[in-house]
Design goal:
Blueprint lengths: L8 H23 L2 H18 L6 H25 L5 H4 L9 H8 L3 H12 L4 H8 L3 H23 L1
Helix pairs in contact: 1-2, 1-3, 1-6, 2-3, 3-7, 5-8, 6-8, 7-8
């Protein structure tokens, strides 16, 4: 006999409808793999169901989901390092459409800590204070990562463009 989830399924469906795209993009940028990103989003929603957290605001819920997704991605990355099976490129080929563009390729070449803050700031349009809460760093550290990430992205993009 299966235990019912602690959180009603309709609240998880509502969270997926509201934040599913954001969670997927975050996980894809961190993991660089479509299938792994989908798995991380699924694990995030399962934790949402199991924990049944109560949130004061929608922003608090969003920040909790983003932080949980980030942690699930880090767990997946840690697992990959400890259990190498296939080269990453063979396991998760990059999308081959031209619409991905050189900017996405340049972004994906950056270290995780810069990819993460750039994606949250420019793609998800989160404020610096919200990003700081998600990644558990100070707003000053987020600003420094944004600055360094922009420099690295510019250099990587120019390198790709040559």
């Amino acid at each position: 006999m299966e235990m019912p989830p602690a959180q009603p399924a309709n609240s998880a469906e509502a969270a997926l409808a509201r934040y599913g795209d954001i969670l997927y993009r975050l996980c894809f940028v961190m993991l660089r793999c479509d299938a792994d990103a989908e798995d991380a989003v699924q694990e995030t929603l399962l934790q949402y169901l199991r924990r049944a957290p109560r949130f004061e605001t929608a922003e608090h819920e969003k920040a909790w989901l983003l932080a949980t997704a980030k942690n699930k991605c880090r767990d997946a990355l840690r697992y990959r390092r400890r259990h190498p099976t296939l080269p990453q490129d063979a396991a998760c080929p990059a999308p081959e459409t031209e619409s991905d563009g050189a900017v996405l390729q340049a972004l994906m070449s950056l270290p995780e800590k810069y990819r993460l803050v750039l994606t949250l700031y420019y793609v998800e349009e989160l404020r610096v204070a919200d990003i700081a809460r998600v990644i558990q760093r100070t707003p000053s550290a987020v600003k420094m990562r944004l600055q360094k990430g922009r420099q690295l992205l510019k250099a990587a993009y120019q390198k790709e463009d040559l």
